[in-house]
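Throughout our pipeline, every protein is held as a single compact record rather than as scattered files. Such a record has a labelled line for the sequence and another for the backbone structure tokens. The remainder of this section carries one protein's record, kept here as part of the documentation:
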Amino acid sequence: MKKWMLIPVALLIAVIAAGAVLDTQRDAWNFPQDANGTDDTLVGAGATTMKYANIPTARYVPGTRHNGLEIAWTMGANAQGCVAYLYAARRNGDITLVWTATLTAGTQVSTSGRYYVDTIASSTATWATGVTETNTGGANTMSRILLDTLGYTYFFFQYTGLSSETIQAQYSGF
């Protein structure tokens, strides 16, 4: 083979090899925590509680190939609502607040018989790349948030404003 042909062949091999590793992992929904019906004592409520030791065992750990997360919620009945706090932590690192919002369920019923949150209001993102909210306007669809994991290992929610309400987060990585 002539030398001038080696460059295009090498480029073709590099493109094919790169395409072989450029793949998006598609996972099912994960439910690391049962439906919650009581207010949490927020880890962010005190300066000494945002520590690695306070990361709950019921948390979501993205797969090693997950660069992003999609999160949705179900509640026990239509029109139930609460405030959700999303936290994250790196392996052997302390906790940081990612996002806070008021959530309200709509009329779309999930396969499990619970009602999807369809309204996300009064949200605040404190994440470097932001948090994208979808279907947030109360149209009786599944509202979700999407975010880059930024290399963080643990993600978990805590909730306030629960009395007769129940809420459950579901996570999927991509």
The helical segments are 3-21. The chain has one domain: 24-173. The chain has a mean pLDDT of 90. The longest strand covers residues 95-109.
